[in-house]
Write a structure and sequence with these properties.
By secondary structure, this protein is an alpha+beta fold. It has 2 helices and 9 strands.
């Protein structure tokens, strides 16, 4: 191989590596809105999406994903920031579904539909919590559900993102959510929530 070819090959490898690292960093993003309930985004450990939409990476260690909870009291008024946790199964991020309702047998034509999916360690914005009596099909998971702000009311199984400005809402199972930078003591949902 000629000397000029080695330089070009080396530059291509560096450029390709930088592109991959940049894509992973961009997919993880920073969910911080500068509020008092922010959390260190350095705990976000996975974000590489392979061709075909599959998310694969090394499963985070327990101390990296089990809790983002802080000791500081939650702000008096929401929405409150939470993180999706413990959604890895067999080295694959299954994510956490955003559902139309928080019970097993919902009313209405789209009631059991999924509005989206949020991957592990990504933030969601919660407006309230409730005990619906539904355990999400997991006997050891409790029955607490969180009403999260969501960008759409249309059924979808796509990976999405919650923000403080979202005008729609959905429900996420509490077993897989951790308060982000606060103690998790937030408002209960009203009956009509």
């Amino acid at each position: 191989m000629k000397k000029g070819h080695k330089v070009i090959l080396g530059a291509a490898l560096v450029t390709g590596s930088a592109t991959i690292v940049g894509a992973v960093l961009m997919s993880q993003g920073s969910d911080s809105d500068g509020d008092k309930n922010s959390v260190d985004d350095s705990k976000v450990s996975c974000g590489a999406i392979q061709a075909g939409g599959n998310v694969t990476c090394n499963e985070p260690k327990a101390d990296e994903s089990d809790s983002f909870q802080g000791e500081e009291a939650a702000a008096d008024k929401g929405p409150w920031r939470y993180r999706v946790v413990n959604t890895f199964v067999d080295n694959r991020d299954e994510g956490l579904k955003v559902r139309v309702c928080n019970v097993d047998d919902c009313e209405g034509p789209d009631s059991g539909e999924q509005l989206g999916l949020v991957l592990q360690n990504h933030a969601v914005w919660v407006s309230c919590k409730t005990d619906s009596g539904f355990n999400g099909g997991e006997p050891d998971g409790g029955t607490t559900w969180y009403k999260v702000l969501w960008p759409s009311d249309q059924p979808s199984d796509s990976i999405g993102k919650s923000s403080r400005e979202d005008k729609y809402s959905g429900w996420m199972f509490g077993k897989y959510l951790s308060p982000a930078g606060h103690d998790g003591v937030i408002a209960e949902c009203e009956d009509d929530a």
